[in-house]
Design a protein that fits this description.
The complex is a heterodimer of chains A (275) and B (240).
Chain A: H1 2-34, E1 36-41, H2 46-62, E2 66-72, H3 74-85, H4 90-93, E3 98-104, H5 110-123, E4 128-131, H6 132-175, H7 177-185, H8 190-230, H9 233-236, H10 242-271
Antiparallel strand pairs in A: 1-3, 1-4, 2-3
Helix pairs in contact in A: 1-6, 1-8, 1-10, 2-5, 6-10, 8-10
Chain B: E1 9-17, E2 23-32, E3 37-41, H1 48-55, E4 63-68, E5 71-72, H2 81-85, E6 88-91, H3 103-113, H4 122-131, H5 147-159, E7 165-169, H6 177-192, E8 196-200, H7 204-208, E9 214-219, E10 222-224
Parallel strand pairs in B: 3-8, 3-9, 6-7, 7-8
Antiparallel strand pairs in B: 1-2, 1-4, 4-5, 9-10
Helix pairs in contact in B: 3-4, 3-5
The chains are: A alpha+beta (275), B alpha/beta (240).
Chain lengths: 275, 240
């Protein structure tokens, strides 16, 4: 029984850790990007492009609903495009758009973007503006789905742990049926008999839970280190906070409570069939 | 009927069947009076053990009424049954000692169930071990005890709480005549302390060893009354 609990808790800690990390990704990325928009100045003539970009930047800074506007340096743009265009002379042949990163006071929703677009077109007819949340939306949606799958997995593991305890309690009841009947006939109450099983399950679940927490925690820490080594902004946002680790530490306690309650209910339900 | 003649157990037209089979016990009516010694006789298969199971509340009847200690135990809430069971001592035919507990712990079990503190257990349990002549075997597991010793542990466990009613199912079935006599003396001693004793046996020799014993007879699931114990207030012992 302790090893079953240990495995269940370890898997639950892993699933919960993943759910919390994904939650952090969605929260942080979504929060950061919700108010951001990118303006691309698609003017082939470099001089005109630079002039339009400066004019747009000046216009944006005057807007009340714009918190900040930053012209992305050309070198940074080149770095962003490097995986597709490589380095070197290609940039002279292919004109790169100028990019302006805009942070809005409110959410960069359709109406806010449309309002800015109307003002941008007056200055740069070929410029386009996109809310950053638009291109990240499918990614965040997929992460959100993964997060809910992790929550479902946690529930499934909780149910499986309860089922394992139920089977163990029924097995123990079957093995000790004669003893239980004697205790019953000597005047032992259902609660007294259930408490004997509860104590036994409590010890098993507590030991198993502690072992499971250590195993699951170690696996999570290892994964966190490997993801951190990727040095990706989105992945980096998925780190676990101190609060998350406290939540994970509570999981064995929850598992123990579920196990003890399941054992009690199983014993009481079975004893009801005996007079 | 005088107040002193009121029974501690009363069966009225009790019937018992298992499932949809025919009745094992039919129209059983009797009253057990406090402080009396009863024998329940009958051939094997007559229904003695089934009747005893009703008496020690291991079974509910299919019909009829059972009153114990002034309460209707048929309709009493299940959660209240343990309180009734604690007033009944049971000696099972096959002892039913708990194998992994010592003689001491087996005898202490009813007290522990009743919530007696560990500090208060030792004296009554050791006294009981001495009373049944097993003072030196307190730590022995049932498997290491002889049949007679196991029987005495079972009896000690049944009586340690000084029950109002002691029910014993063939208590001498597994012991030699000498030990059977000793056990009956133990039951008589307990009876003298005020416990109502009911011994189920098909050993007719045993009945003669307790001259004041009242005899109830089961025959194919119905009760007969050879001594009039069931029809009238029980006869008094000499000197009472």
């Amino acid at each position: 029984m302790p090893w079953v609990m240990a495995i269940m808790v370890a898997l639950t800690v892993l699933a919960a850790g993943a759910a919390l990390a994904l939650n952090n990704v969605v929260g942080q990325a979504g929060g950061e990007l919700a108010a951001r928009a990118t303006i691309q100045v698609l003017e082939p003539d470099p001089a005109a492009r630079a002039a339009q970009t400066e004019a747009l930047d000046a216009m944006l800074r005057r807007q009340r609903d714009v918190v900040s506007a930053r012209i992305v340096p050309q070198a940074e743009v080149a770095e962003l495009l490097e995986p597709w265009l490589g380095t070197g002379d290609g940039f002279d042949v292919v004109p790169l758009p100028a990019l302006i990163d805009v942070a809005l006071a409110g959410e960069a929703d359709d109406s806010a973007v449309a309002r800015l677009r109307a003002k941008i077109i007056d200055i740069a007819p070929n410029a386009r503006i996109d809310a950053q949340s638009v291109w990240l939306a499918p990614v965040l949606s997929a992460i959100t789905t993964l997060r809910w799958m992790a929550v479902g997995l946690i529930l499934l593991l909780g149910f499986t742990a309860a089922a394992a305890v139920w089977l163990a309690a029924r097995n123990a009841l079957g093995t000790n049926r004669d003893t239980l009947e004697i205790v019953h006939l000597l005047g032992g109450s259902d609660a007294q008999i259930a408490s004997i099983f509860q104590r036994s399950i409590l010890v098993d679940a507590a030991i198993g839970g502690a072992v499971g927490l250590v195993l699951g925690g170690m696996a999570l820490a290892l994964l966190a280190r490997q993801f951190a080594a990727l040095d990706s902004g989105l992945v980096a946002a998925g780190g676990l906070t101190a609060g998350d680790w406290i939540l994970l530490a509570i999981l064995p306690l929850c598992a123990t409570v579920i196990a003890v309650y399941t054992a009690r209910m199983t014993v009481l339900f079975t004893l009801r069939r005996i007079l | 009927m005088n107040a002193g003649d009121e029974g501690i157990v009363r069966f009225d037209n009790v019937g018992l069947r298992y499932g949809t089979g025919k009745e094992i016990l039919s129209d059983i009516s009797f009253t057990l009076f406090p402080g009396r010694f009863y024998f329940l006789t009958g051939a094997s298969g007559a229904g003695k053990t089934s009747l005893l199971r009703l008496l020690y509340l291991a079974q509910r009847p299919s019909r009829g009424a059972i009153t114990m200690f002034d309460s209707d135990v048929i309709t009493v809430a299940r959660d209240n049954l343990p309180a009734f069971r604690r007033r009944i001592g049971v000696v099972f035919q096959d002892f039913r000692l708990i194998a992994h507990l010592s003689a001491y712990d087996n005898i202490a079990l009813p007290l522990r169930v009743a919530g007696v503190r560990e500090d208060d257990l030792a004296e009554p349990v050791n006294d009981m071990l001495e009373w049944v002549g097993l003072g030196q075997r307190a730590d022995a597991r049932p498997a290491t005890l002889s049949g007679g010793e196991q029987q005495r542990v079972a009896i000690a466990r049944a009586v340690i709480t000084r029950p109002d009613l002691l029910v014993a199912d063939e208590p001498t079935g597994n012991v030699d005549p000498e030990m059977a006599m000793k056990l009956m003396r133990l039951f008589e001693a307990l009876n003298r302390l005020g416990t109502t004793v009911l011994v189920a046996t098909h050993d007719m020799q045993l009945l003669r060893k307790v001259p004041d014993g009242l005899i109830m007879r089961l025959d194919r699931g119905t009760m007969s009354d050879p001594t009039g114990a069931l029809r009238y207030p029980p006869r008094m012992r000499a000197g009472e």
